[in-house]
Design a protein that fits this description.
alpha/beta; Rossmann fold; three-stranded parallel β-sheet; about 40% helix; about 15% strand; globular
């Protein structure tokens, strides 16, 4: 049975980590999966353990992965048929460790369209040849890889997937929206600081932010509640009136698909990754435009008929992103890598 080792940065609750969790617990009997996070922290750790996924810790609870991480990755990768790296640090350390071991089947997934620091971008491009194939989670992410110099023939696009059976459209309030919901990592990329600024122009509304991250202390104010990490996202979305995704950049936007699958109306930044995922199912605003964001929230929140139309279009759009299709595509690529190696 082929064995796949995933190397993410940690086991946090972001889209990349949730994809790894789904690939592990939804694997066909033909594959066996394990994870080796660079950092031991992460809200999803208990879910990996509950799913019976072996966890090989490489680093510390805090700080860098440690001086022995590279040697550990090299040693561990020899026990697996495929090494699958995720996110920038996971790609760098995973590629180096697997390359040190002479591994012949290394796959990297590009989850984002982030603007890199010049040295990070240069290092990522320099190490790209150590991955035998690279997956982009969207056409937008593929464009970032090609612009960085990765050969088109080495890049595949596999869109993220969601377990649609976990989400059910629920009746939504027909009057004025009272509470705006935002879900995600509390980091600058997600633009929650912009949403907090927009809420200052909407005194009639409250904001609930769900997630963890270093920006938590910056996201406080009147009528703003921080809830931390929540494991039961379907239950949260079942009660949501309106979700806002104000990201500055986004490779895919998994929470947007989950919201559409739950029938929640959406307002999102008009950035390439989200634009591709949402289609015409959401109201999109220019990224970073606080005034436009506030106006869109006000207009959609006051128009129940519009929200109903958005719900119907969102349900149709979400049907594209089945987790079963995503897992099948990855396992097909795994098989190709094994054949080529």
């Amino acid at each position: 049975m082929p064995r796949v080792l995933h190397i993410p940065c940690d086991l946090a609750g972001g889209g990349a980590e949730r994809l790894v969790l789904d690939l592990c617990r939804r694997a066909s009997p033909a594959f066996e999966h394990a994870v080796a996070p660079l950092h031991r922290t992460g809200s999803l750790r208990a879910l990996f353990q509950a799913a019976g996924v072996p966890i090989h810790d490489l680093g510390r609870w805090r700080g860098g992965p440690g001086g022995l991480a590279l040697a550990r990755i090299a040693r561990l990768s020899r026990e697996f048929d495929i090494v699958h790296t995720h996110l920038w640090a996971g790609d760098v350390w995973g590629r180096l460790g697997a390359g040190l071991a002479g591994h012949r089947a290394v796959l990297a997934t590009e989850h984002n369209t982030r603007p890199e620091d010049s040295w990070r971008q240069a290092l990522s491009v320099a190490l790209a040849p150590l991955s035998h194939r690279v997956v982009a989670v969207s056409q937008a992410a593929r464009g970032v890889l090609l612009a960085a110099g990765v050969a088109p023939g080495r890049v595949s696009v596999i869109e993220n997937g969601v377990d649609l059976s976990r989400f059910r459209p629920a009746p939504r309030p027909q009057g004025q929206v009272r509470t705006v919901l935002a879900i995600g990592r509390l980091v600058p990329q997600k633009g929650f600081d912009l949403l907090v600024q927009a809420m200052a122009e909407l005194p009639e509304l409250e904001l609930l932010i769900v997630g963890e991250g270093p920006d938590a202390s910056r996201l406080r104010g009147p009528r703003i509640a921080l809830r931390g990490w929540v494991s039961d996202v379907p239950a949260l979305l079942a009660q949501a009136e309106l979700l806002v995704v104000p990201s500055r950049w986004e490779g895919f936007g998994l929470v947007a698909v989950e919201a559409m699958a739950a029938g929640v109306p959406l307002i999102a930044s008009d950035v390439p990754g989200l634009r591709e995922v949402l289609g015409e199912a959401a109201v999109r605003v220019p990224p970073g435009d606080v005034g436009a964001l506030a106006e869109a929230i006000r207009a959609v929140g006051a128009d129940p008929e519009r929200r109903c139309r958005m719900q119907e279009e969102g349900l149709r759009q979400a049907a594209r992103f089945r987790i079963e299709r995503c897992v099948e595509d990855y396992e097909r690529l795994y098989a190709e890598l094994l054949t080529a190696s």
